[in-house]
């Protein structure tokens, strides 16, 4: 027991100090600084000593002097939230960037994604017990962020993309979409327009011994969605409220669904929990856990 206590006390001393060598004073770029004590400071870099040992951070309450060995990590504010490329189900216009992630959607659908600069690739496949491989559901999604701008404390992004889904092996459909996201520190709003461009109009989706269901979804249908992502309490960065409103066919407004949930997150892990509401009426849980391993210097 005493060995564990000693090791716990010595671990912070053994951790390498965050490198300040690549950071320069910049009054327009805000940083998220997490100390080894767990405290978090947000502000712009006012000054760095010549030996990169001391950092002066201009915060909302004044200038804080921080020593490099006290810093666990320092990340630009526009990179500190690696989950901004997605809502509960909807993609945003923000790219995955240089990150990658692994997730588990609804407990039974492993998923993952990788960023290649402005290109984002993601996908997933269900592993429902008792169903044959041909009865599982698969999804592949491609997105290209074609425009990004940051000014006046906000950011705006535009992206286009497409996806192919298999609702059982015989039932494939292809969508194309365009999406825009406007965001600040307090709120991100995403609007998406999509169209089904390939696939049968009438499908029978089977689920083994669980039965089957018939679905009509005409090729050429145009749908839209809107979503938001905002901190539940502005001063608590790790808890966010997320919502989405979908209509799969704009000429049939009754085909609308809403999703509302919360996201508990840090720079590595995000846990999403929510409810989806359908006009049948029906309610379904939405659960997703995502791990984004961060590559740090």
Q: How many domain regions?
A: 2
Considering DSSP H and I runs of 4 or more, what fraction of the residues is helical?
under 10%
Unreliable stretches (pLDDT < 50, length at least 5) are: 1-17
Shape: elongated
Q: State the total count of DSSP E strands.
A: 19
Please describe the topology of this protein.
Blueprint: H1 2-14, E1 26-35, E2 40-48, E3 54-59, E4 62-67, E5 71-76, E6 100-105, E7 109-116, E8 119-125, E9 137-151, E10 154-167, E11 172-183, E12 188-198, E13 202-206, E14 212-216, E15 222-233, E16 236-247, E17 256-265, E18 269-278, E19 282-291
Antiparallel strand pairs: 1-2, 1-5, 2-3, 3-4, 6-7, 6-19, 7-8, 8-9, 9-10, 10-11, 11-12, 12-15, 13-14, 15-16, 16-17, 17-18, 18-19
Question: Can you tell me about this structure?
Answer:
The protein has 297 residues and is mainly beta. It has one helix and 19 strands. The strands form three sheets. The protein has a twelve-stranded antiparallel barrel. A hairpin with a 3-residue loop joins strand 17 (256-265) and strand 18. It is elongated. The chain starts with a helix and ends in a 6-residue tail after the last strand. Mean pLDDT is 86; it is low at 1-17.
Structural descriptors:
single chain, 297 residues, mainly beta, SH3 type barrels, Porin, 2 domains, twelve-stranded antiparallel β-barrel, five-stranded antiparallel beta sheet, 1 helix, 19 strands, 59% strand, disordered N terminus
Brief summary:
The protein has 297 residues and is mostly beta strands.
């Amino acid at each position: 027991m005493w060995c564990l206590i000693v090791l716990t006390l010595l671990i912070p001393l053994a951790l390498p100090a965050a490198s300040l060598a690549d950071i320069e004073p910049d009054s327009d770029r805000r940083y998220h600084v997490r100390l080894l004590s767990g405290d978090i400071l947000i502000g712009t870099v006012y000054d760095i000593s010549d030996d990169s040992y001391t950092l002066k951070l201009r915060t909302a309450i004044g200038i804080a002097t921080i020593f490099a060995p006290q810093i666990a990590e320092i990340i630009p504010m526009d990179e500190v939230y690696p989950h901004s490329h997605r809502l509960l189900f909807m993609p945003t216009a923000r790219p995955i960037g240089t990150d990658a992630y692994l997730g588990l959607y609804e407990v039974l659908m492993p998923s993952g994604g990788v960023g290649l600069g402005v290109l984002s690739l993601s996908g997933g496949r269900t592993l429902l017990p008792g169903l044959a491989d041909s009865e599982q559901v698969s999804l592949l999604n491609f997105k290209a962020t074609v425009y990004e701008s940051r000014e006046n404390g906000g950011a705006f992004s535009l992206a286009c993309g497409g996806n192919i889904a298999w609702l059982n092996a015989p039932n494939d459909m292809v969508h194309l979409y365009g999406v825009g996201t406007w965001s600040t520190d307090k709120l991100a709003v995403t609007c998406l327009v999509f169209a089904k461009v390939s696939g049968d109009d009438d499908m029978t989706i089977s689920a083994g011994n669980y039965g089957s269901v018939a679905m009509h979804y005409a090729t050429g249908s145009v749908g839209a969605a809107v979503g938001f992502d905002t901190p539940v309490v502005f001063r608590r960065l790790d808890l966010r409220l997320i919502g989405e409103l979908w209509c799969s066919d704009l000429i049939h407004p009754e085909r609308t669904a809403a999703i509302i949930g919360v996201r508990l997150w840090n720079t590595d892990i995000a846990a999403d929990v929510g409810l989806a509401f359908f006009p049948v009426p029906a309610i379904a849980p939405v659960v997703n856990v995502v791990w984004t391993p961060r590559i740090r210097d």
